[in-house]
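User: Sequence in, structure out. Go.
Assistant: Echoing your sequence, followed by the structure tokens.
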Amino acid sequence: MNIKKILCLFLICGAANAHNIDPAKCNNEIQQDDVYWCLMDKYQQSVIALKKEEINAQKRLERFDKNEGKERGLNEDGTLAYDSNIHLARITFPELHRYFIIYREKQCGYASLSIGSLSGYRVPISSLYCKTEMNISQIKWLN
């Protein structure tokens, strides 16, 4: 098996849980570049975990959309019990990711700029920390 595939599988399997991603662990580093690369690793893990959780949430919505009426039975008037909100959520779910990315980029861009023009890696570190935390909160919300 190719080494790149092994590393990719290792990264995907290792980033399966949002609770394993803790950007605060990167604060123990002394050098700014070490903090930056530690946060970059945590950010990549959070992106992979977010994608995985979005796929799981999409599958759950599809399952509920197809099976909810069958499981709930019939309404009092004899019609099939069906919640149109679940169908609407399933259809609009892909837009959620796009809007989240736009919101995350704007929010973290503003948060990074608010610390001013500082030397070194401070602005990118602030941005990575913000993006990682927002990804983790989105993962927990989807879960």
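User: And one key feature?
Assistant: Confidence is low (pLDDT under 50) at residues 5-15.
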